[in-house]
Amino acid sequence: MNAPAPDQSPTEILAGKVAALRPEAVPAPVRARAEELLIDVVGLCVAARGTDYVRALVSATDAGGGCTAIGHAATYDAGTAALINGTAAHGEDFDDTFEGGPVHSSAVVIPAVLAACERFGRDGRAALAGIVAGVEALCRLSMVVPKAIHQAGFHPTSVLGTIAAALAASKTMGLDRRQTVDALGNAGSMAGGIIEYLAEGAWTKRMHPGWAAKAGIIAARLGQNGFLGPRTVLEGAHGLFHGFARSVEGDYGVLTDGFGEKWFMEGITFKPYATGTMNQPYIDCALRLRARGVRPEDVREILCETAEGYVHRLWEPLASKHRPANAYAAKFSAPFNLAVAFVTGGAGLAAFTEETARDGRILALASKVRYVVDRNNPYPKAYTGHILVTLKDGKVLEERQPHIRGGAQEPLTRAEIEAKFRGNCGHGGWTKERAQRFLDAVPKFFDGPLDLTPLRG
After folding, report:
1. I need a labelling partner for 157 at 20 to 30 A (CA). Which of 99, 240, 350, 380 fits?
2. SS (H, E, C) 141-177
3. Looking at the domain assignment, is residue 413 inside a domain?
4. How would you classify the pairing of strands 385-391 and 396-401?
């Protein structure tokens, strides 16, 4: 392979590697991962289709167009379908995550790719190429300047997802290298997503992946039609990382080196619990303590070691984390997550409702949870959990979780991912038979013409 020209920007290098990607060259494990991500996204869209936030979003859009909003009878233009599906897929915070970012990839990329396929008549092979290009790129983008985007007050999934969605849509639509560079350049001016939802459990985070997916489609169409975008969109003096990470100093090599040969997306985490990524290992610790016979009423105090990067999202202000404003805010409260797992024995969709958010027994236990920052915590390279419980009789019990379950260190099996899918479909009102028909179709999904009509309604 020829070395890139010395004046090529990271965007140009990335666009070239993606343009060269062929669906038949995608390794079998990567294709399998794409299938699993597709399964997860479809199930999550079905689970959320009747929620208040999805109903509000659908009511705010205009129907009409040939693209599918999963679980809905009406059809929409490509951008709107991507917006609805991306919002639904991420809405319960039950979608995949990537250690190293963190970012949620499939809730952005798959809605953009499916909509682009329907709008432009692209087949399953194009969908596969678009999904693996976009998901892999988003994983890599998250490692260029780790933690900085969150620390600056923005949502990395939304900011970086817009770039990844534009790349995925460009590949799906068959854009050439020059058109893809313009698409990515244009996407940089469409990116955004503040994390002020943390203040009171507002819904805006739910919308971020959907908006990124929609923006990615628009950016790709602009690039396709010759609308010029800056080729230094990522690393430039006024580029994406300057704007959202407050720095242009980063590891741009991780974005492009070995792209198409080494696949970070193989290490994506499928969440076992319907809540924020960083809470997951703490929930495992809580459930193990519960299994050891610890009762909420026996607890005097709980102390957790945590990463500094978690504090502003999961722990502070501590008083509001002890008593979250609503069920959605509860998903971003480490004390509530520990308490609900202790009390109910789980942390699925049923654990985060307005009823549980007001449950006196859960809140009483949450109020006993404190934290201390572990300066040696490996976040964001790994997500860990720790609970030290002091009982009223003076006994002390401790649990640690060195990694997130469902990730590279302890992956969920295909059978477990399919079981999660069935549960989500059941929650959203699909019959077992309908869910199984989709699962039966997945092995051939990327081989021929795409027909998403079975996913409507």
Report:
1. 350
2. HCCCCCCHHHHCCECHHHHHHHHHHHHHHHHHHCCCH
3. no
4. antiparallel
Dist CA 52 CA 108 (whole Å): 21
Q: Is 296 exposed, middle or buried (0-12, 13-18, 19+ CB in 10 A)?
A: middle
**283: number of CA atoms within 13 Å, CB side?**
26
Domain that holds residue 385: 277-401
Query: Are the CB atoms for 124 and 450 separated by under 8 Å?
Result: yes
**Mean pLDDT per 10-residue interval, the chain, length 457 residues:** 65 97 97 98 98 98 97 98 98 94 95 98 98 98 95 97 98 98 98 95 97 98 98 98 96 97 96 96 98 96 96 95 97 98 97 97 98 94 95 98 93 97 98 98 97 97
Coil vs helix vs strand at 416: helix
Q: Is 45 helix (H, G, I), strand (E, B) or coil?
A: helix
What is residue 6's predicted lDDT score, i.e. its pLDDT?
A: 56
CATH number at residue 344: 3.30.1330.120
Say which residue the tokens 């997550």 belong to: 337
pLDDT tens digits, one per residue of 224-280: 999 999 999 999 999 999 999 999 999 999 999 999 999 999 999 999 999 999 999
Kindly state the DSSP code that residue 24 receives in the 8-state scheme.
G
> Is residue 84 in a domain?
yes
Give the integer Cα–Cα distance in Å for 184 and 229. 7
Among 87, 95, 112, which Cα is nearest to 206's? 87
Q: Do 262 and 317 have their domain in common?
A: no
pLDDT at 2: 40
Claim to verify: residue 345 and residue 444 sit in the same structural domain: no
Regarding beta strands 369-373 and 299-306, do their DSSP bridges make them parallel or antiparallel, or are they unpaired? parallel
d(CA 131, CA 137): 10
